Amino acid sequence: MVKICCIGAGYVGGPTMAVIALKCPSVEVAVVDISVPRITAWNNVEKHVCEADIVFLSVNTPTKTRGLGAGKAADLTYWESAACMIADVSKSDKIVVEKSTVPVKTVEAIERILTHNSNNGINFQILSNPEFLAKGTAIENLFKPDRVLIGGSETPGGQKAIQVLKDVYTQWVPEDCIITTNLWSAELSKLAANAFLAQRISSVNAMSALCEATGANVSEVSYVIGKDSRIRPKFLNASVGFGGSCFQKDILNLVYICECNGLRELAEYWKQVIKINDYQKIRFVNRVVASMFNTVSGKKVAILGFAFKKDIGDTRETPAIDVCKGLLGDKAKLSIYDPQVNEDQIQRDLAMKKFDWDHPLHLQPMSPTGVKQISVVWDAYTTTKDAHAV
């Protein structure tokens, strides 16, 4: 029996391991995490890591808030800590699989950590197996993935490790859906995929501003564009901007990598995707204020929906935060309704600084006062009652 241990029981590790356990009867799966509330039913991290043949690393890689690369580079603190622990407790050869979205060449750093911290002459093979899950449909994406990407070294040992992981996935994924590459291609492919998707959103949002200036209808324009077989319609709906834990973080990471490699023009190109996204949110707030005689001071504005997309409770990088902060800055009174997001989370999001949501700081208790101009209600009709704008 192959034994798998996944370090990290969050949005990626939890669903991925649940599906592997369901689909692979010959695989024993353990999930461990440093978060006590998240893993109350599990314990003994080191025991499972020691016994595993394959160790998935699905730990957080937040954007750095200070130091070199602050605001763009990925913080690999949790990665390094997990790698050191693997090296310390391992007593047999292991395949270590990076599941988190990480900068290109992270494997080299992890390999050094594993090699230098292990005193047992153990052989570690490292693979890159980035996730391509959409929030709200993760299990469906795992059941029927459009592709599974596995990157490994081009040595005999690396190729053997790729085959071991491939054998796990082929128990339910068609072999022609599994793509194998070198390590660097796999690491960069995840950043590239998210950058391209975010680019499409920023492109249509930029077009929406031009449509409003010229009298064109952005819905009609995006429909025409989407009928082009080379483009297709996905991610072409104009909106307030993209949100979620991946797009902005991964593009900023890509910008930092370009800068570090002396590719300033490329860095500036990808920065524009973020700038258009920020511009779209500011433009939306300005339109709201302008439509209400250029002031929302003391006026009730109803906000229907706070998560970054429908049918989920995930508020990470949701455009609603910037919209609400913009309106609060003009002294509006906000009434917010989202059936999947609780009041504590909304108050926390609106009180946080940028990027704090991705660090343990966001789990600390909030002061009981919250933001006084905000009321969070659990009924859409109450939210909109007597509102000046919805």
Fourth CATH level, the homologous superfamily of the largest domain: NAD(P)-binding Rossmann-like Domain
What is the average of the pLDDT values?
89
What structural class is derived from the secondary structure elements?
alpha/beta
The total of helices stands at 13
Number of domains: 2
**What ranges have pLDDT less than 50 throughout 5 or more consecutive residues?**
none
What is the name of the CATH architecture of the largest domain? Answer: 3-Layer(aba) Sandwich
Order of helices and strands: EHEHEHEHEHEHEHHHHEHEHEH
Any overview of this molecule?
By secondary structure, this protein is α/β, with parallel strands linked by helices. It has two domains: 3-181, NAD(P)-binding Rossmann-like Domain (Rossmann fold, 3-Layer(aba) Sandwich); 191-384, NAD(P)-binding Rossmann-like Domain (Rossmann fold), CATH 3.40.50. The chain is built from 13 helices and ten strands. The protein has helices at 13-23, 45-51, 77-89, 106-117, 138-143, 156-169, 183-214, 218-226, 247-260, 264-290, 319-329, 343-351, 380-384; strands spanning 2-7, 27-32, 54-57, 94-98, 124-128, 148-152, 178-182, 300-304, 333-337, 374-376. The strands form three sheets. Strands 2-1-3-4-5 form a five-stranded parallel beta sheet, with helices on both faces. A three-stranded parallel beta sheet has the order 8-9-10. Helix 7 (183-214) runs parallel beside helix 10 (264-290) and helix 10 packs across helix 11 (319-329). The longest helix has 32 residues, at 183-214. The protein starts with a strand and ends in a 6-residue tail after the last helix. The relative contact order is 0.09.
